Amino acid sequence: MEFAIETTNLTKKYESLVAVDNLDLKVKADTIHGFLGPNGAGKTTTLKILVGLLKPDGGSVSVLGQELGWDKPDVRSRIGYMPELPKLPKHLKGRELLDIYGRMYGMNKEERNKQVPKLLDMVGLREREDDLIGKYSKGMQQRLGMAQALLNEPELVILDEPSLGLDPVGMVEVREIMKGISKEGVTVFLSSHLLHEVEQVCTHVTIINKGVEVTSGTLKQISAKFRGPVTIEAEVDKLSKAVIEKVKGLPFVADVSRDGKKLLVQVKTRDDVRSQVSQAITAEGGIVISMNLKGESLEDVFMDLLVKSKKGRL
Amino acid sequence: MSVSHASWTAKFLAVVRYEILWNIRKKKFLGMLVVAFALATLSLAGGHIVSAITGEPVEPNPDFVINSNVGLGGFGFFLFAIVTAMNIISAEFESGTIVPLLAKPLSRTTVFLGKLFAAFLTLLATYCFLMIYMTVGGFVVHGPQNNLHLVPLSLLGALFSTLIWIAIVLFFGTLFRSSLIAALGPFGIWLGTNIIGSILAVVGGQGWILTYIPGSGNTGYFGEPPPLGVEVDTLLGIAVSTGTDSIGPNLIKYILHPSILHPSWVVTYYKMNMGGIIPGESSQITWTPLYSEPFPTVILTSIAVALVYFIVFVVISWYVFRRAQVTE
Model confidence over B214-251: pLDDT tens digits? Predict the structure, then answer.
């Protein structure tokens, strides 16, 4: 099975609004695939179709090699799904919820007794397992949402904004969990607004806007295809003409400009050449205070793509 | 993990467990339970309270338990249906908990049936507790009781009466995905049928309509009927309600009083005639017999009405739920 998720001409309308428009989504098995797009792009709608919560108006969907049909629950036993800001029944205790969901997956007592404490440990809720979920903070509910998505040891995990509402430590932990399960051969498909997060954990990315796919591929492919010229922005003390000329002389430099104490160096290469630029500056007596890359991050690519998409240039 | 080949029963029972825990931890359900036990206590102690006020001694009542109808009346059944069923589907949509639930490998039918069965079990357990309480209390307060072997029939009747309203509450909740409408919609029906319907039926002589709607139903009178069309001044015989609320008491009457099976013992329905007011005299009310029917027909009709309402509303709710898309 090459693709864990494959959609063809997937379309979903809410009356006159086309939320997903002929989407051809392909998520390779055993990858961490990010699903990006601005608010209202159709990400959550797509994810809900994948887990059978919404019925598409057109196109076909195949998940883990099985064609999705309405109210055909079998394939869901191989999927874990964490909704955006998961709303979990407040009348249950954390451990009870996982136990009952485990029963719904058809796990026997032995399997539940093994899996539930393990997951509660993993998401840091073991000490609060006997508290009602209604007493959990949003972050704790988010963690429990992650635990229930991994309960059945799924082959495919679909996560809708998994870091939303988490503190920085929680965000790092969620990323580690995603990386960890991916190493075990689980395909992770996640929608996120946090481009930094996607950049850190994903191997593949699909960007959609207004229900239409803007681009899809590996992070490297997308960066190579769409990334604009990289600029090194350096704040330099004792910035002299000699420094500027020295930097201009570097073979990979396309252009150099000055903005007060800032030196903007446009480079032709995709290699990280900050150390060479730094050496050139200090060789002529300049003192480097800070140095950043611009046009390098996924955020830059994402913003650039969305602007181009709006202008109809893609 | 070998989780994909679990039996349907195991998944169904998981939904039942999920729902029962929700039911029994609901504050409004617990509140209703307290009210029901308070009403039952009042019913048990009523005789002693009156005795304390009037000074009259309390007579032993060996039929207290068998006539108690689980200690609840028609409105009690209706309220229990509301608190048990108003959250079954609608609250899942309102709170968003439907999303993780329906993402599990369960068919919509399994979820629906599991929730419905949980509501039934919750009711059954509640009514059993009430019945036991009334039985023990009846012994203590009113002395040894007769015909206790027929108490399960009373329980069955109470369940029947409540399940119709559960189906109606479920219908409103599923259709509108709102707990408020799930409660108010059936309340409107209850008011309409039990109050306005009763007035129109008695005055207009169209009481037969009440036989076909849930609730207290039409009122008829046992005994040998007068000639049809001949007005009478006084209603003779024992009053009997034909509604779904009276399935239990009517079944018990049927078993305890075999004489009512005699062809001459039928249930007769009357139209009330309001006479003119003559100065110095009270207004004259007369009754015109409309039609009669055998008592077994009354019982079978009420059971059939209960089943039809239950099945129709449950099937519509199931159909709507099965097709429901989760946009929340």
Answer: 888 888 888 777 777 777 877 777 888 888 888 998 99
Residue B63: CA atoms inside 13 Å, Cβ hemisphere, count?
A: 5
Q: State whether A245 and A220 are in the same domain.
A: no
| B325 part of contact set with chain A, CB < 8 Å | yes
- Distance in angstroms (rounded) separating the CA atoms of residues A81 and A158: 5
CA dist., res. B182 & res. B55, Å (int): 47
Residue A252: give its domain's CATH number. 3.30.70.100
Say if the Cβ atoms of B103 and A100 lie within 8 Å: no
Q: Which CATH number fits the domain that encloses residue A219? A: 3.40.50.300
Q: Which of A228, A219, A211, A217 is nearest to A309 (CA)?
A: A211
C-beta neighbour count of B189 within 10 angstroms: 19
Q: Which position has the token pair 């050496």?
A: A279
- β-strand partners of B219: B241
Residue B306 has pLDDT above 80, yes or no: yes
Encoded tokens for A298: 């996924």
pTM assigned to the model: 0.85
Same domain, A64 and A177: yes
Provide the CA B203 distance to its chain's centre, in angstroms: 25
Q: A310 lies in a domain?
A: no
In a domain, A299, yes or no: no
A111 interface with B at CB cutoff 8 Å = yes
Question: Beta strand A156-160 with A79-82: parallel, antiparallel or unpaired?
Answer: parallel
- Confidence category of residue A160, pLDDT binned at 50, 70, 90: very high
Q: Which domain holds residue A97?
A: 3-225
Please give the residue of chain A at the shortest CA–CA distance from B23: A91
